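Late entry, evening session. Most of the bench is empty. Finally got around to the prediction I had been postponing all week. Sequence below, unchanged from the version circulated by S.P.
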Amino acid sequence: MAGLKMEGPSAPALRRDPYEVLSVSKDSSDQEIKTAYRKLALKYHPDKNASNPEASELFKEVAYSYSILSDPEKRRQYDNSGFEGLDADGMDMEIDLSNLGTVNTMFAALFSKLGVPIKTTISANVLEEALNGTVTVRPLPLGTSVSGKVEKQCAHFFGVTISDEQAESGIVVRVTSAAQSKFKLLYFEQDVNGGYGLALQEDSEKTGKVTSAGMYFLHFQVYRMDTTVNALAMAKDPEAAFFKRLEGLQPCEVSELKAGTHIFAVYGDNFFKPATYTIEALCAKSYEDTTYKLKDIEALILRKRNELRQFETEYRKALARFQEVTNRYSQEKQTVDELLKQRDTIHSTFTVARSVITAGGSGHFSNGSSSKFPSEDFKADSPGEDSSSDSKDKSGKKKWFNLNLKGSDKKV
């Protein structure tokens, strides 16, 4: 799948029927859709049409259409409800590194580092050389490994030859990178013209201290983890990340290989530098216990995915209820605090020192108290009386001060 998958607004503004774009019928098989896509993607690929903006738009339209028809669930949604039935947030986003300028390449790299995985397309040159059968294929015998370094947007091709017995037992091809390089593991089918057509691709994922990708042809349905599924929706809603995590488990299109030579490739998918890798091919006959464990664990994961879909609905309802009651908690707390504050204010007014109501220039307590105090303490407020009161206070303080001093002199 070497297309340019777009998300939401990046999709063509005036969208045509995907079947019409790819020139296939609604009852076309997956293989017929894939073959039609390959031809059109190569025809309109930006690498081959650098000076033709119309071809670039057609390439996007072809890729967008294929992103719908190549996915069973999206195809079903489109067949039932048209474009309105598609979940825009769930659409993958895929960019073509070979057609990006330096600034946009840096932006894409940054975007990927921020936690939104980005699928990248495969260079048209690599696909065309493979289709023409002009690539160099190195042998990769079963039970061996080969290490190498591949330049960005280039590929190293390997031929894995298997017997009938080995094909019956199952085959595994894995690639790892201790340098945590980004790469793609590709599988090519023999084309009618003698070349090789891209059939499968696996993007490397970080697993522990390495990046790795693998293909497992074990005669039962195996699954691959596509981290770009719902990646944009998950970035917008971090809580969804947990529930959507297993949605990336997608069925592999090919579950077994026949006897003969099969072509695999390691594609350099780093943004700025070559990718270092080690590729190995194994016969599953020596790994029967591991094969059964893989089958069992994937069955458990699929069951858990269905449970999480149901649990998410329950969780969302409970979360909405929780937010509702926590909002009410805050409101009720504020109300109680305000009521107690008002009560304290009322309590504080029960005091002999409360405010005096002045009537006719003579002061008296508003609560009718008959307690009497020196009149100067209850003079009506006015600038003149304030001044007089101040001078009397000073005089009193002076006499009291002098008396103390005189008394002290006498004692001494």
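Two things to note before I forget:
Residues 288-348 form the longest helix (61 residues).
The first strand starts at residue 94 and ends at 95.
Will write this up properly tomorrow.
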